[in-house]
Amino acid sequence: MISAPRQVLQGAVAVGLALFLGSPPALSQTLQRKVHFANTDISRFWSRTFRGIGRPWRKPIAYEYRSIAKTPCGIAGKFNAIYCLHNHSIYVNVPLLEQANYQAGDFAAITILAHEYGHAVQNQLGLSRLHRYLVQEELQADCFAGVYAQDANRRRLLDPTDVQEGYTQSYMSGQNNFHPNSHGTRRQRARAFYRGVTHGFRACLAYSFLR
Ligand SMILES: [Zn+2]
């Protein structure tokens, strides 16, 4: 993602529970700036999209943590990212973002955040109840992440490789073997992201009705 103005993750507090010995390795400032910008931008994107369908958007609170985080949905562990519907909050593990950034690029890290926003979208649209299998809910969140990538790309916020980075991240997040209660296979997750990129918001709604 192209460097953007410095913004602070709204409402963010460090909720890591581990004791740091010495100073913790910081999320590289550049990546941090991009992630914080994306956090604001993704929410604004969904705010616009919701306005377009006549629904109110309530911004989730995003927390970043280094070790583990206590949430109303249980403990969020290392290399994890979750959306908790009990307090409408997103928790992202900083080492997970750093790893994605290292392995696939900055927009891979942003795609992790965008996926969690996808769950916030599902919750607010009442879509979560319409999935028969967990896998459909997860693929829909991947699809919504793709929709954001498409929009950010149109607004010229992205580098030429960013969409591919999101695709790679979705692929790497998948599992090798299919199980209806998993998050989907590598291929399914990458395709879901791509579906969002190419077909937009409404195409992602199909995951709520697929059987
Ligand atoms: Zn998910």
Number of helices: 7
Bound molecule types: zinc ion
Shape: globular
Number of strands: 5
**Measured on Cα atoms, how large is the radius of gyration?**
16 Å
Query: Strand order, biggest sheet?
Result: 1-5-4
Order of helices and strands: HEEEEEHHHHHH
- Average pLDDT over all residues: 86
Query: Termini distance?
Result: 36 Å
Helix content: 40-55%
Percent in strands: 5-15%
Contiguous runs where pLDDT drops below 50 for at least 5 residues: 2-25
Q: Please identify the structural class as seen in this structure.
A: mainly alpha
The largest sheet is: 3 strands, mixed
> How many domains, as an integer?
1
Topology:
Blueprint: H1 29-52, E1 61-65, E2 69-71, E3 74-76, E4 81-84, E5 89-93, H2 94-104, H3 106-125, H4 134-154, H5 162-173, H6 186-199, H7 201-204
Parallel strand pairs: 1-5
Antiparallel strand pairs: 2-3, 4-5
Bound molecules: zinc ion.
3D architecture notes:
This protein has 211 residues and is mostly helical. It has one domain. Helices cover 50% and strands 9% of the residues. The protein contains 7 helices and 5 strands, in the order αβββββαααααα. The strands form 2 sheets. Strands 1-5-4 form a 3-stranded mixed β-sheet. It has a two-stranded antiparallel sheet with strand order 2-3. It starts with 28 loop residues before the first helix and ends in a 7-residue tail after the last helix. The N terminus is likely disordered. Bound molecules: zinc ion (ZN). The site of zinc ion has 4 residues, from α3 and α4. The site of zinc ion (ZN) has 4 residues, from α3 and α4.
